[in-house]
Every structure is written in structure tokens, then in C-alpha cells.
Amino acid sequence: MSGGGFKIFKWAVVTVAIAFNILVYFYPDILNDLQQCKWHEFSDSGRLKSKLDFINGLDQSISDKILLNLPFLQDIKMSNTKSPYDLHNDVKDIHLLAFGDPQINGNWASTKYIKRLDNYGNDYYLGHIYTTMKERLSPSHVAVMGDHFSSQWIYDSEFYNRTYRYVERIFTRPIEYKQNVLDVHERHEDYDWQKWLSEEVKLDPLVRFNSRVYNDVYDWYNLDKKYPNFENPLFINLTGNHDIGYSGDATWQHLARFHLLFGQNNYVINYNKGTPEEWRIIVLDSLTLEGPALQEEFLNYTWSFVNNIEKYENKDFKGSTILFTHIPFYKREGLCKDGPEHKYYVNNTQEPYKNGKLRSQNHLSYDSTQKIMNIMFPKDSKNGIILTGHDHYGCNSWYNLLSDTWEASESVKPTGERFAVREIVVESMMGDFDGQTGILTGHFDKFKQTWLFEFTYCSFLVQHYWWSSKILTVVAVFLLSTGFLFKW
């Protein structure tokens, strides 16, 4: 190739590399409508403000893009208080990012090097999505909707390896928030799940429940911080069938190591309790709600948690509930990609003790759905929302109370006996589903005296575009270096 031809090729590659990197790093604005990749602005919400007056004077569509991509220019003094309330004494909005089913693959001795490289890159692809959205929006809460890993049938050693990748490459956090994971990974010892089992079975049911009730927690590391931590949001990790298994094959070992590294499987966090702005998060382990189960005590523990919510927490509760589960609630065939389905082990000769037990499910059963809805959204409470995972394609439904029965539909029914509850099945963040980020905004309406919720998706692209940006960057640097060396 002549010097002139090399220059043309070099600058062509550099141009394409720059274009791909612009796409990858500014995808929220390039690939999405502006309203999709920002917190929802309600009728009485203020717009994003800048420290610089000339930016505030621009058209909002322009100023928002500047401030979302350069968040250090935002004027945050109004909300930057050590309180759940801002300087006007208005309760701060709920800002939550939801990520569906990352399903991280693992490496084995037989894994080919090209697949190892693919897994390595996929970690950073997922991490790029999280980092981009966190820096752009500064959420108060982040929820991963279960199925952190691709399979529950892995040894403790591999579980530690994937959890290490989860906190180091994907959902990166300061050292104090991941120290436990790093320590466990460094020791790399099989977890003594039998000790955890013996401690759990001895627990009085009410003691177990009370250990899973929290108030005004915004930071698992600093429990005394009773206000949103926008720099290090509160993480909510749900159990998925690929984390602990369906109830027909979930074991004490599965649940013990999840508790060790990801936290409890059932809990409630109350916020602003006893005030008009009261709301709560309920994390419910939907994998241990139905059976027949391999460990029936798991079902007893989860239903005990549910019943104690009704007995102790609902007594004076008049606020809004954000309910998190992995398995979606029952709905008729055709409303979502996955219809209702339960499968059971039959003629399992290798593990005959599983025969007759629950093997898989797409939804919770009709009866479980009715019970859970009635307890989690009691009559005296206000507007609420459900976030689930499991169905990678996502779904959007409304549960209307009609003749004392919760029925799912595509819209709110005006004949409903009280408020309808929206269920969002969060689309997967995997590349095959365009790397989705769910954005939930909660806003307290002072006139209606209730929380209002809005949900949008911010979409990326299949992981090949991320890979292309990296490969093109390396090639462009090589060509620029070669051109400089040979004066081409």
C-alpha cells in the first residue's frame, strides 16, 4: 500500500472508530427519545437546572442533553440535603434503576478461549450500561431482578468467581460496599451452609421476620444515613431461578451462599413511616412461594414472611408499595410473551427424590397471585407498582380489582373497585435484548396525597457494537502510531 493509500485508510478507520465510540458513549440520546432516558417530570416537578445561567436559557431539549451528559454542571443544591426532603420541605422523588436478568456465563476447564473472551467482554458490556446510566442519572436505588448468573448448578468456587466479576466489572462500587465479596473470593473456601442451616431452623418465626424489617435504609454500609445516597445507591438483589433454583430443586446450599454474598431473600424497607409520604419496598422471594418443594421449610419461611407483613406491617400502613419479585404474577395467555405454565419433575431416574416437585414456572399461580396482591396492596393503602423479571422480553400489565378478584389487563379498568396496580416485567439487560435499563420514577403528589409512578426503558444495542468500538479503537491507535513512525 502506498503512503497516500495508507493515509486514506488510516483516517477512514479513525473516523469510523470515533463514530462508533460516540454511539456507544452517548447512546441514551442517540438511540432513544429524550424522555426515555431521564427521570420522569411530573406536572409539578422542576426541570433540570444548571449552575450556569446561559444553559438554563437554552431550550429544555438542549439543556437537558447537556446536563445529563455533563452532570457536574447540574445545580443540585435544592436536593442535596441530608434528609429525605429537599430545601422546600418536599419529599424527594424515588429514583430507581432496574436491570433484568444479566445471566452471567462462567468459564470451565473445557471452555474455549474465544468463549472466555466473549464472557470477558460481556462483563464490560453490561458494566458499560450500568456505569453510563448511573453517572447520567444518579439513582437512589438499583434493583437487579434476579438471574444474576446463567445457572444455579455451579460449585461454590464458581459462584464466588461470578460474584467477584459482578462487583468488579459490572456493578462496580467502592471497596467498602464489596469487601465481603472480595474476602470470600480470596479465601475461596466452600461455604459452611450446614452451620447457616442450623442457625436458620432455630430462629423463632417472629425473630426471623423482625430481622428482615428495616426503616429508612438508603445505604447498606451506613445504616445511620437516613437519606438518599445518590453517589452509592442502595442495591436490591433478587433471587432468580438461575441463582437458587425453582423450589423443586433449591437447596440449603443455594440459599445460604446467596444470603452470604447478595443479601436476604425476603425483606421490607419502610420509608417516612407514619407520614403522608409513607412508602415501602418489599422484596419477595417468588421462587420459594410454590411447590411441591425440595425443602418445604423454604415455603414455610416465605409464607410466614408474607403473613407477618399482613399481621404486623399492614396494621397502620397507608402508603404506597413497590413490590419486587422475580417470577411475574398470574395473567391469562397472550398478555405477555410467556403464558402461565408450571412443570413438575416426572420420571427423573438420576434424581428420583425430585419426582413430583416443581421443576419450572412462568408465572405465579392464580391463588398465590390473589393472596399476595391482597396482602401487599391492602385496602387502606395507596397507589403501588410491581417490578419483576424472568420473562426476558418484558411486559406491561395492570391488575384491576373486580368483584374482589385481581385481574390482569393491558390497561386500567374504570370499573375497578380501587386503584389498579401496574406490573412491569423488566426486559433483560443482555445484549440479545438491546441492553435495557428500566427507569422508575416515583413522585409524591401533594394534591392527591399519593405517590405516582412512571416507568420507561433506555435501550442500548446488541453487544457487537460495543465490541466494534473497542476493536476499531485499537486498530485506529495502531494505524496512527504506524503512520507517525513512518511519516505516512
Automatic annotation (TrEMBL):
InterPro entries: Metallo-depent_PP-like, PGAP5/Cdc1/Ted1. The chain crosses the membrane at residues 465-486. One of its GO terms (biological process) is endoplasmic reticulum to Golgi vesicle-mediated transport. The keyword Transmembrane applies. SUPFAM superfamilies: Metallo-dependent phosphatases. One of its GO terms (cellular component) is membrane. Keywords: Membrane, Transmembrane, Transmembrane helix. The keyword Protein transport does not apply. This is DEHA2E05522p. It comes from Debaryomyces hansenii (strain ATCC 36239 / CBS 767 / BCRC 21394 / JCM 1990 / NBRC 0083 / IGC 2968). The lineage of its organism: Eukaryota, Fungi, Dikarya, Ascomycota, Saccharomycotina.
